[in-house]
Amino acid sequence: MRYARRFVAGTLTAGALALSLTGCGNSVDPIERLGRKTAQDVGTPSASPSPSPLASAGASARAGTPADEAYRKWGLTAPVQYAPKPANKPQLPKATPGKAAVVDRIPVAPTEKVVFLTFDDGAEKDPEFLKMAADLKLPISMFLTDNVASSDYGHFEKLRDNGSASTINNHTLTHPNLRTLPFAAQKKEICGQQDRLEKRFGKRPTLFRPPFGNYNDETLRAASECGISSVVLWRASMQINNFQYAEGSALKPGDIILAHFRGPSELKGATEIQMTTRMLQRIQEQGYTIGRLEDYV
After folding, report:
1. Which run of H or of E encompasses 7?
2. Exposed/middle/buried for 201, CB within 10 Å: 0-12, 13-18, 19+?
3. Which residue in 254, 232, 259 sits closest to 243, CA to CA?
4. What is the mean pLDDT of residues 150-167?
5. CATH number assigned to the domain covering 2-32+60-295
6. Cα–Cα distance measured from residue 92 to residue 105, given in angstroms and rounded to the nearest whole number
7. pTM recorded for the entire structure
8. Beta-carbon neighbour count of residue 270 at 10 Å?
9. For the chain, what are the domain ranges?
10. Model confidence pLDDT, tens digit, residues 193-215
């Protein structure tokens, strides 16, 4: 994967730099800072945009989902569509001995319009978001940082157990830029969070996301020694109103989407629910379904 190798080499391209800055930085809108725009204007979208046709009829909702009844409640104009679990997982990049593999897009067929939701950090703990995720049965892969999420891990446990098959994964203890740390310090950050998540949730994660998307060979080696099989990056990040893309101006099949557990203080007055509604609208407008990342990795 050319994109991942550029990170390892330590030379950030403009696209990778934009993703790195978007991945859990203090500012939620690096579009202004970098002078970039998303596929749509960054202005606030209308309350009820007219979505494009959704994904093909072959894509079906999860069994038992109430999404058909709940979507209007959460500001959507069409039901959320879900990709069925694939019969076989796609062939992902293989890890080299002693190092975790790097995944930034799921290699699905060009006609398979499926994307994946991931949420990072864990600073915001809005109980209304729990209701939204449960009503819509959103399959969210959570990447939690201990120093912000641990004040109420119960919130994320409820999200995990709401029937949507959401999962809890590793995003370090304190959210450092791992590329600036020696191997021992990187391993402490990753293994330390593995230990805490296992103690709190009863399971040791196999997926890890480095803060800011920054990593090097020592990160991959430390992650592997901590029991991580895949380092998960992303190809599109949700800002306040719209996506920012690693390349191009639209979603692509297999894109992993980055969002954050953030509230009004970091979203310029918008709520986590408003941000998520806009994200789902953008997915619908582009005709995509939502898959569960762990069904493919």
Report:
1. helix 2-9
2. middle
3. 259
4. 97
5. 3.20.20.370
6. 9
7. 0.81
8. 19
9. 2-32+60-295
10. 999 999 999 999 999 999 999 99
